[in-house]
Amino acid sequence: MVAPEVTDTRFSLSQAEIPSAWFNVAPHLSSPLDPPLHPATREPVGPDDLAPLFAAELIGQEMSADPWIDIPGEVLDVLRLWRPTPLVRARRLEAALGTTARIYFKDESVSPAGSHKPNSAVPQAFYNAREGIKRLTTETGAGQWGTALSFASAQYDLECAVYMVRKSFEQKPYRKVIMETWGGSVVPSPIDDPSNAGSLGSAISDAVRDAMGREDTHYALGSVLNHVLLHQTIIGLEAQQQLALAGETRPDVVIAPCGGGSNLGGLALPFLPDPAVRLLAAEPASCPTLTQGTYEYDFGDVQGLTPMMNMYTLGHDFMPPGIHAGGLRYHGDSPIISKLVHEGRMEAVAHRQKAVFEANVLFARVEGKLPAPEAGHGIASAIAEANDATAKNEERVILFNYCGHGLLDLAAYQDHLAGDLGEEP
Amino acid sequence: MVAPEVTDTRFSLSQAEIPSAWFNVAPHLSSPLDPPLHPATREPVGPDDLAPLFAAELIGQEMSADPWIDIPGEVLDVLRLWRPTPLVRARRLEAALGTTARIYFKDESVSPAGSHKPNSAVPQAFYNAREGIKRLTTETGAGQWGTALSFASAQYDLECAVYMVRKSFEQKPYRKVIMETWGGSVVPSPIDDPSNAGSLGSAISDAVRDAMGREDTHYALGSVLNHVLLHQTIIGLEAQQQLALAGETRPDVVIAPCGGGSNLGGLALPFLPDPAVRLLAAEPASCPTLTQGTYEYDFGDVQGLTPMMNMYTLGHDFMPPGIHAGGLRYHGDSPIISKLVHEGRMEAVAHRQKAVFEANVLFARVEGKLPAPEAGHGIASAIAEANDATAKNEERVILFNYCGHGLLDLAAYQDHLAGDLGEEP
């Protein structure tokens, strides 16, 4: 095997180089996270409060202060189906922009589900199966998380029930088919109001209520929580090895789309200890949690079934417009991400839908990859950073997360090409 | 960079290891191919007869006896966006089958178009652009080739007009969207008969007539011709390097789906000089060109506009049932593939649609990749070979071409899961 040259555009690791432990950001925060509060008593929740919903191992990870947490071999065996994922230098995008910057992206679209989501779905399914659980429930927005959990459940012989945000369920009928191909079952949410377009917050309510009603069933969340971001850090850990192969000391700025925070946290958190690395969250202007929300305790779901968390929120009853980036339509945000933004360690920017699709079409034409609407928020930010670097004649090293492909989002491209994205922000 | 271990499941080459020349099978055939005949005079065609349709460089490759043909740097620059593609050992499929065989597949689904097709679309667009052509026309069945040529045309600033088999056009509306995202234009074929489901043969007629009518326009064919198979040999050349990384001396059998023959030829032809390697074509039972056709001169299209070629054919007016594997609905076959089958050097087998989808769902569940209907023909054959090896307690090394993903074919999976594939063979 020949080592890559720095003139290459794709930097691959062998399977022997896949990280064997996740990076826990907890010891690197300025102070411990504020505790989640019980939705009724508003007292800090302990492991027993979470046990009806989550595997004990996941609850332990949620509260762990250990700097590294080993990845079980049975999890690595499945992750190796697509990991390590490539790090790509977007030289053709650089040329199209005429930029002085160097642009890299981590390609998480190569997973079975087409996004970063299986990185957490696989360990969540594994730990639940090992603890005797037979069935998982979850919510899904764009469909990426439900697809990932359906795939992961099939690997460990679990049933999987997916509550899908109704707006996405109707926009993306084929998402249901792919989930069913992996053995999942899919219903639109909210289940009790067919006229309601739904949101991640309402779908979480449905999934949590289902799991609370059955002994053999747990709930799985695809973002927001500490253990989800933990599982996603495999992205950033691989990227660090690959940037070294590319001859880079560090990125100047690390960018990712942000809905609940999992793909952003996954790429960015391993870079947190280096103060020279800027961290940037890219969110939709129509659901501007980090850029226009308030930092306070709020529920994770619409109906107030989940613990309250200290985070940026638009209010747990906020109903975002039905933009195509369904995975970013969430009123709140990861407490870890929220704390970093609140303390000024992480920046945030919001993009309008039309600008996101213009970035996506440019990216597809020059790099040959058709991005998910969510991924376009990262691309739009990367392009803005590159243009800024060019204006200042800087050799800025930009790293963004290409968190998913758009092959199941072609109806959105159809609307965009027809000039029919509407007037939403 | 750490070299792969033979216990790995994915064998990747660095970009520095991408082949720099295509493998020309001509010197390795038992005798020269029979010449194509002019459709009117039935005399052998020369370069001048083909010049209205094809770039001079491609005509030269079509008739070349050179053992190797260099890949231009401008072509490699684009191929490197996704090549080299991975070779994967399907260990989880092996476990599910409980087989004594070792199963490998070459993953061509990672290309921009999601199939092997860009391997030829890119050089065809490049040579035409270099010779001053401004516009390409083509046909597409499942949509894979039209998608590939739209992408490739965008890389060299060519216009691209795609005539899409009407049955596929109606089954797969999002194929049109992805082609348009890359700047292609798409119309259903036959253009003069909206009640006709169409076939590759009829779409070729439409595309050839368009190209013959304009000075600035050439035609591009996605399979069948010698130069197309030549461009695809990059698949088999990479696979040879990767099998060595996996610790294999040679495959015992090389398998690929066969419609016109391009993905089969691409994987199999570099193995032809080794008589210990069996070569196997997998075709649909509803369009059984190699298993039930006759070996004789026939037209490549329905209307008799193309040169006649000596090949297996079901008759140029054969109209196959509207199966989901639209890319395999072709009445004829590559003259190279046909000659190898006729002489007994290559075997052929036909699969029914239902069996193909059962193989695809198994593959998706254990390997995490959702196959195109076309790709399932190779998977079904690989499973049959593995089961045969197990019955004989043989350590057979099986290599098949995973020629494309099925993410734009979910309507077919929907029909399959609903038990609604119909009674076609």
From TrEMBL, chains A, B:
Its cofactor is pyridoxal 5'-phosphate. Pathway: Amino-acid biosynthesis; L-tryptophan biosynthesis; L-tryptophan from chorismate: step 5/5. It comes from the Bacteria. Residues 80-401 form the Tryptophan synthase beta chain-like PALP domain. Its EC number is 4.2.1.20. Keywords: Amino-acid biosynthesis, Aromatic amino acid biosynthesis, Lyase, Pyridoxal phosphate, Tryptophan biosynthesis. It holds the Pfam family PALP. The keyword Amino-acid biosynthesis applies. It catalyses: (1S,2R)-1-C-(indol-3-yl)glycerol 3-phosphate + L-serine = D-glyceraldehyde 3-phosphate + L-tryptophan + H2O. The modification N6-(pyridoxal phosphate)lysine is found at K117. Coiled coil: none annotated. NCBIfam families: PRK12391.1, trpB_rel. The beta subunit is responsible for the synthesis of L-tryptophan from indole and L-serine. Tetramer of two alpha and two beta chains. Belongs to the TrpB family. This is Tryptophan synthase beta chain. It comes from Actinomycetospora termitidis.
